[in-house]
Design brief:
The complex is a heterodimer. Chain A is α/β, with parallel strands linked by helices. Helices cover 25% and strands 24% of the residues of chain A. Chain A has helices spanning 23-46, 66-75, 103-108, 195-200, 301-315, 342-345, 364-369, 375-389, 393-412; strands at 2-8, 51-54, 84-86, 117-119, 126-129, 136-140, 170-176, 178-179, 192-193, 205-209, 215-219, 239-245, 261-270, 272-282, 288-294, 322-331, 350-360. In chain A, the strands form 3 sheets. In chain A, strands 1, 2, 3, 4, 5, 6, 7, 10, 11, 12, 13 and 14 form a 12-stranded mixed β-sheet that branches. A 3-stranded parallel β-sheet of chain A has the order 15-16-17, covered by helices on one side. By secondary structure, chain B is α/β, with parallel strands linked by helices. Helix content of chain B is 71%, strand content 8%. Chain B has a 5-stranded antiparallel β-sheet with strand order 2-1-4-5-6, covered by helices on one side. Chain B has a 5-stranded parallel β-sheet with strand order 7-13-14-3-15, sandwiched between helices. Chain B is elongated. Classes of the chains: A alpha/beta, B alpha/beta.
């Protein structure tokens, strides 16, 4: 029995602009990305990994800045770094004119990927025998365009692995794709595959990228006592973890909560059915929080800030973290709250306060049920009637904003732009 | 609100108290310029106060304007009734104070505070500011048209409009529609956009944001276009890279060719150099073969021939000298042998014997002379000793007695004198030391005793006192005497003990030192005495053994003996010398006798000995001459040696010449053969010289220097190593080096050109790339931010617009309410007044249009131009009345203060208007009408006496307090 170790990392999205961060924080976050990839290499060396698997979206766009490119080309150029297998994804598709992948264009700029970095250059499956482990083959396919692909990489017949003389071999798949019915709402489905296709795949392990949230598919060990890889669509080619998304190496957006990093994949193979285990390696030193705070009865902006601070404290957020606090409730009439104060904002690496669920404390039911004798009451009732009748969320939000601005004008004789985020 | 009473101490020219009838029209009649307008100002001032701000009233402030003309207190007091409450407003404009009192006597001023120190009582009660009050409640001549501002903005901003709306609402809200719209419009007009960093109209902000977004869009597109354009140069870059690679390969091929050519050149040079080196080696080998002759001097042959000639001549001289020497030696030897025969007696003697004879003769003469001198000296010394009293017998006896004693005895006798002297000296010193020590001990003891005695006495006294005190204390314990005794005894005992202790230790060191010296001195004295006693015992024993009576006698003889021995020592030495000379003379005579016997005897006198010595020496000289006869011909030997040395030198020289020429001299061969050999060598030397000086240097010049050859070899190795594949292969094309150089230059220029193009292109691409990545994310983020800002601004704009539109739409009903009222009411009033205006229609903004009797509907501005001034005033008067009525609906009716409103109307219209005021309006509103047309109103009153009697209250300004 032999053991193969891999480090799987994907969706680095190097070169991402991070426009949602404050300008002075963007470079720092890009530095986090680089630090994460650098650590992947170090972990691979320290853990004695036989290869680093990168199933797509190493770069955020097809062409990245020279600094990022130079970093990516050099980060693997470390003594002891194992072979690296990159399957370009939809964000950084491979093409002969790709500034990041084309050896010819890279050479024209005086660059080249290190020799131990193998980039899969075809949308069809290609195999590369792993140096040092002759019984292990790494299969990969790449995206050749950033357009959404409906190709099913694991469709039956898409890959036929010829019988091998070595029945104890190991076949590893590295690709970019979407597991059906598991796609996060903010991501698109491309190169889809089903769990059934995974189960019937001839590969022992599937290192997949695209989804930024880690997930995996496990299969229990079958009664087969020997390797079944290399037999075409055979099914049950392995036991344990059959497929895994490592998720994004670092959180790329405020929606990407939870831990982010890479996976260590251990495969026992040889005179038995391959058994795969994965172990997460946390790479992102920042955590992303999505918190809620009630603002009912808050009578000043400072009080709202204090409630936000309490939510941060309860969650254990630190000054390195990225936090979204969703405020909800009704502010006392006349309290203007456009966002956290500079002191509170300075306590977090990034703090965003979501005011969409915050409403001024107007008694709308009274307007609905009242006699509507005054102009103000007729105004409120008119807009409430429109609001109730409207189905379009954007229009509803607009009507709601108009209602509150109008009521502010009537009641407070003061209108300040506050309700643009309502319900959006 | 009803005005009940106005009292003023002095307000402008107005003074006095005026009571108004709240239920009827008050008609105040006065002459022109008598204070009607002042009264209206006083009422307004009582309700709202007077401004004193010189910034807004540059010419004269209201306070100054109404300052009393004739002095006096500057105060007004107005009594009013409002919603059933009677209030008295007191304002002192001099002091700037205001007081509001209720009917119950309570001050309620604070109810009317607005801001820091403003008390606009009228605004609080009526909801109209001072301007609006003046517009609605004061109807002045010439100002009728000002109730509705001519411009739209003025009408919009009018609180009168808002008051009409509020009045139109069934329930008065916090804010009316107009105000709400104003707030919304104000917020839309002052939208703060952080992305633009300024505050402006929201429409402007949107326009600017859109413009900025468009600009960013175009910039982004330009950047993306630039990036896309880079793809082309990147392809070119790759193509140029390939071309550069090909150019490098071509250059490498040419370079290989060039190196091959160079290698061939180098090889040929090395081969030629090998040949030259071979020639050089041959010449050097020949030169080495002739090297032996190379050192042959140029004149060696001539020298050898001359040397050989001179050698043969020297050999001939030697032979002639040998024959001459043999002849001369035979003749001299005969003469010397004859002379030896004459000295035959001395034949057995040697030259030493002659010398001995001379020495013995001298010895005999010296002994004789020395013996004579010593004997004379002995006689003299003997005479001298006898003169000193020494008897020879005494000397002999003492000598016989003391000569035989042993060395120990002699030391004893010689030491007696020193012993006695030492004994006497040391004993005296030691005695002195002993005496001094004893004295010191005595002094110390005396000192100690001087302290011990009083010490013991005080100790005894102290003990006694203590004992006594103890006894006394036992007997009479109450007495204090025993205590004193014990204390004194203790003190005395202590002092006594101290004295004893100090006495015992006084001069301790001195005492010990004295004791040590005393004991040392005593020990040395004892030693000296013991030594002296031992010496005396030994002397006594010696004197007895030598037969003396005592030691003193022995010592005396010994001393005499010692002195005598010392004084007679010269004589003794002279006698011993005479004896010695006698022995020497005997020995010399014995030797002379033996010597003379060998030459035939004779007397042993010195003269004879000297003659014998002369004969022996002559014989010796002749023998020597005979023996040295060979030496007498030494000049011939000398000459012979010179000749031989010359011959030898010549021979050696010839041999050296031969050796120098490398020829070994062989005596068996004749010199002629050697000369022939040397001649052959001389010819070899000439050849060697030619080789060394001409042929070899020329060959060396042709040979490459070692470093040059090594350089060629390393160059060849380098060339071969740089093109190992072709190193062993034959040259492909035998092109000329110049041609290759030209080709190389051409290829190099091409490569440089490609490199430059590629570098320029690469820099261009990288710059485009860098610019794209430096600006694109930033602009993208900026675009995103601007997009969000635009969305927010649009959302805000749309929200505000929707709110405004909604408010306007719902306020139409409100507008309809007050507009309908005004339309209807104004028309009624105008019909009452008898104008030719049929109807007024008020718009949303309080503006109105006029419809004449003929049905023509015209806008307000045009209607005002078409109407006469009287009709115009009547229209405005009707509008004022209608507005006042509307504002008073359901709330406090406004009082109306009318200043000659019908001055421009004809009598009929004026009468109709007055009737309308009296009959209708005065029932709801309090009306105070001020006029200077007394006659006219009296005429009206006479015509409508009943109406005037019931509804009119005449008030004369001259008698303000008179109420009719």
């Amino acid at each position: 029995m032999s053991v193969a170790r891999f480090i799987q990392v994907s969706d680095l999205h190097l070169g991402r602009p991070f426009g949602w961060l404050a300008p002075e924080r963007r470079a720092e976050r890009r530095s986090d990305q680089r630090r994460a990839l650098d650590r992947v290499v170090r972990e691979a060396i320290e853990r004695g990994a036989h290869a680093i698997l990168i199933p797509g979206d190493l770069f955020d766009v097809e062409g990245v800045d020279a600094d990022t490119m130079a970093f990516a080309l050099n980060v693997f150029n470390v003594a002891g770094c194992p072979p690296v297998f990159i399957a370009p994804g939809n964000h950084d598709p491979w093409s002969d004119t790709s500034h990041t992948w084309s050896p010819r264009l890279l050479k024209a700029r005086g660059w080249a990927w290190p020799e131990h970095v193998h980039v899969f250059t075809s949308a069809a499956w290609q195999a590369v025998r792993l140096p040092g482990l002759s019984a292990v083959r790494v299969w990969g396919r790449c995206f050749t365009s950033s357009a959404t692909s409906n190709d099913r990489p694991l469709a039956e017949g898409s890959v036929i692995i010829a019988d091998s003389a070595d029945a104890q071999g190991l076949e590893i798949a590295v690709f970019h794709g979407s597991r059906e019915n598991q796609c996060p709402s903010w991501q698109s489905i491309t190169a889809p595959f089903s769990e059934k296709e995974v189960a019937n795949s001839p590969f022992s392990y599937h290192a997949v990228g695209h989804y930024h949230v880690p997930s995996r598919i496990e299969l229990k060990s079958t009664t087969h006592g020997t390797s079944t890889t290399g037999r075409g669509v055979s099914g049950s080619a392995s036991a344990g973890v059959r497929l895994a998304y490592a998720g994004s190496a670092v959180a790329l957006d405020v929606t990407e909560t939870g831990s982010h990093g890479a996976l260590e994949v251990r495969v026992e193979y040889g005179f038995r059915q391959p058994f795969i285990e994965t172990e997460p390696i946390e790479l992102d030193r920042r955590k992303v929080y999505d918190l809620r705070a009630e603002v009912n009865g808050a009578s000043s902006a400072e009080q709202v800030d204090r409630r936000v601070q309490r939510a941060l404290d309860e969650a254990g957020a630190t000054d390195r973290d990225v936090v979204t606090v969703r405020l909800a409730g009704r502010l006392v009439r006349g309290v203007r709250y456009a966002g956290p104060g500079p002191e509170l904002r300075g306590k977090m690496f990034h703090l965003r306060v979501d005011l969409r669920a915050v409403r001024p404390d107007y008694d709308l039911n009274a307007y609905r049920e009242g006699t509507a004798g005054t102009t103000e009451e007729r105004f409120a009732r008119t807009l409430l009637t429109q609001l109730d009748a409207e189905n379009d969320p954007e229009k509803k939000a607009l009507i709601e904003s108009a209602l509150y601005y109008g009521l502010d004008a009537f009641k407070l004789r003061d209108v300040t732009p506050t309700y643009e985020e309502l319900g959006s | 609100m009803k005005l009940l009473r106005l009292r003023t101490d002095s307000f402008g020219g107005l003074k006095g108290e005026f009571a108004f009838d709240p239920e009827r029209l008050t008609l105040m009649v006065d002459e022109n310029e008598r204070g009607k307008s002042t009264m209206i100002a006083a009422i307004t001032a009582a309700l709202y106060g007077l401004e004193d701000d010189r910034r807004s009233h540059r010419v004269v402030t209201p306070v100054d304007r109404w300052r009393p003309w004739a002095g006096g207190s500057y105060r007004v007091e107005l009594e009013i009734e409002h919603e059933g409450e009677r209030l008295t407003i007191k304002r002192d404009f001099e002091r700037g104070t205001v007081q509001v009192w209720s009917a119950g006597g309570q001050e309620v001023t604070e109810r009317f505070r607005s801001g820091k120190d403003q008390y606009p009582v009228g605004q609080t009660l009526l909801g109209l500011n001072v301007w609006e009050f003046e517009k609605c409640a004061l109807v002045r001549q010439g100002e009728l048209d000002q109730v509705v501002p001519p411009d739209e903005k003025g009408r919009r901003n009018s609180t009168l409009h808002a008051r009409l709306e509020s009045a139109a609402d069934t329930k008065v809200g916090d804010t009316n529609a107009t105000e709400a719209l104003q707030v919304l419009e104000a917020s839309a007009a002052s939208y703060t956009c952080n992305e633009l960093g300024t505050t402006m109209k929201v429409e402007t902000a949107i326009q600017r944001l859109e413009a900025k977004r468009a600009l960013l869009d175009s910039e982004l597109k330009a950047l993306e276009h630039d990036l896309a354009v880079i793809a082309g140069p990147l392809e070119d870059l790759a193509r140029l890279g390939d071309e550069e690679q090909r150019a490098r390969e071509s250059l490498a091929r040419v370079d290989v060719e060039r190196r091959e050519s160079l290698a061939t050149d180098v090889r040929s040079k090395l081969a030629e150099d090998d040949r030259h080196r071979s020639e050089l080696e041959t010449l050097r080998a020949e030169a080495a073969g002739l090297a032996a002759a190379s050192d042959l001097p140029s004149n060696a042959e001539a020298d050898l021939r001359e040397t050989v000639t001179r050698l043969e001549e020297a050999q001939r001289n030697l032979e002639s000298l040998e024959s001459r020497r043999h002849e001369e030696q035979a003749r001299e030897r005969g003469g010397l042998q004859a002379e030896i025969e004459g000295l035959r007696a001395y034949a057995s003697c040697e030259a030493a014997d002659a010398d001995r004879c001379i020495a013995l003769a001298g010895e005999i003469r010296r002994i004789a002379e020395e013996d004579s001198r010593l004997r004379t000296e002995i006689f003299g010394l003997r005479d001298s000793l006898a003169g000193q009293g020494h008897m020879p017998e005494r000397i002999q006896s003492l000598t016989a007695r003391f000569r035989g004693i042993g060395d120990e005895s002699q030391r004893l006798l010689r030491g007696q004198t020193d012993l006695a002297l030492v004994f006497q000296t040391e004993v005296a010193d030691l005695e002195k030391v002993r005496t001094d020590s004893t004295e010191t001990l005595r002094a110390v003891d005396a000192m100690r005793n001087s302290r011990r005695t009083p010490g013991w006495a005080m100790v005894a006294l102290g003990l006694g006192a203590v004992l006594g005190g103890g006894v006394l204390g036992a007997l009479t314990p109450q007495s204090s005497l025993w205590g004193m005794l014990v204390a004194a005894g203790a003190v005395l005992f202590g002092v006594g003990a101290t004295l004893l202790v100090t006495g015992a230790r006084a001069r301790e060191m001195d005492r010990e030192h004295a004791l040590r010296r005393l004991s040392d001195a005593q020990r040395k004295l004892n030693q000296l005495r013991a030594q002296r006693a031992e010496s005396e015992v030994a002397l006594n024993e010696m004197s007895r053994s030598m037969g003396y009576r005592d030691a003193v006698e022995l010592i005396r003889d010994w001393n005499e003996y010692s002195r005598m021995i010392e004084q007679s020592s010269p004589l003794m030495r002279a006698q011993e010398s005479v004896s010695t000379l006698e022995i020497q003379r005997k020995a010399a005579l014995d030797e002379v006798k033996a010597l003379l016997e060998r030459v035939g005897g004779g007397s042993p006198d010195p003269a004879h000995l000297e003659r014998v010595a002369a004969g022996i020496r002559h014989l010796t000289a002749v023998r020597q001459r005979l023996a040295e006869i060979e030496k007498s011909w030494s000049w011939i030997d000398e000459e012979k040696r010179v000749a031989e040395a010359s011959a030898t030198g010549l021979r050696e020289r010839a041999a050296r010449i031969l050796t120098a020429a490398g020829i070994t001299y062989d005596p068996a061969r004749g010199w002629a053969k050697h000369v022939a050999d040397l001649s052959a060598r001389a010819r070899g030397r000439s050849r060697h010289s030619v080789l060394a000086e001409e042929l070899i240097p020329q060959a060396q010049k042709r040979v490459l220097a070692d470093h040059a050859r090594a350089e060629l070899q390393s160059q060849l190795e380098l060339l071969l190593s740089q093109s190992p594949a072709t190193a062993d292969a034959p040259p492909v094309v035998a092109r000329a080096q110049a041609e290759i150089e030209v080709e190389t230059q051409r290829q190099r220029e091409k490569l440089e050109s490609l490199q430059k193009q590629r570098e320029d292109l690469r820099v261009s691409v990288e710059e485009g790339w860098r610019r794209h990545h430096a600006e694109h994310p930033q602009k993208l983020a900026e675009l995103e931010s601007i997009g969000h800002a635009l969305e927010r601004a649009q959302r805000f704009k749309h929200s505000v617009e929707l709110a405004s539109e909604t408010i306007r739409s719902v306020s139409v009903e409100t507008h309809r309410r007050w507009a309908d009222h005004l339309n209807e009411r104004v028309s009624e009033i105008l019909r009452t007044l008898g104008t030719r205006v049929e109807q007024l229609r008020f718009g949303e903004d309080l503006d109105f249009s006029v419809r004449f009797e003929d049905g023509q509907q015209v806008a307000r501005g045009r209607a005002m131009l078409q109407l006469s001034s009287g009709a115009r005033d009547q229209v405005h008067f009707a509008v004022r009345l209608a507005i006042s009525e509307y504002l008073s609906r359901g709330a406090t009716p406004l009082p109306l203060l009318i200043d000659d409103a019908f001055a421009t109307s004809d009598d009929e219209r004026a009468r109709a208007g007055m009737n309308m005021l009296l009959e209708h309006l005065s029932k709801r509103h309090q009306i105070i009408l001020l006029t200077c047309h007394r006659q006219r109103h009296q005429t009206f009153a006479s015509k409508d006496a009943e109406l005037y009697g019931a509804r009119c209250h005449w008030l004369e300004a001259k008698t303000p307090s008179a109420v009719q």
